[in-house]
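PROTEIN DATA CARD
Card holder: DUF6233 domain-containing protein
Chain length: 118
Origin: Streptomyces yangpuensis
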Amino acid sequence: MPGPDPLLPLPPALEQLLVIRRWLELTLARVDERIAAVRAADAENARRRPLPEPPQWWIEYGIGVRRTPERVHTGDCPVSTRGRPATAQGVREILLTVPDVVACPLCRPDSELGLLDT
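Structure generated from the sequence above:
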């Protein structure tokens, strides 16, 4: 028979041990209920949090090793599926200096940047 546990002295009587076991079960059930409530509250808070604003400008890159810029978009354009957010200055620079880069014909970022007037 193992010796007494110095960290958690328990009574030797069966009835007392059963009472302690029941108390622990009830306490564990309360803790589980609280965990579920906190998780539900966290999920509700996450659901209520507003979505981040889309980027104002978007640069679409090609597929392959070089992944060079191919097309530029406004941030809310539904056509762009791959790329990175960009600044207006970055989009303007790419449109003016990188050969073969086109402005999306649907969202017309070149028009919004005033590049058609120059």
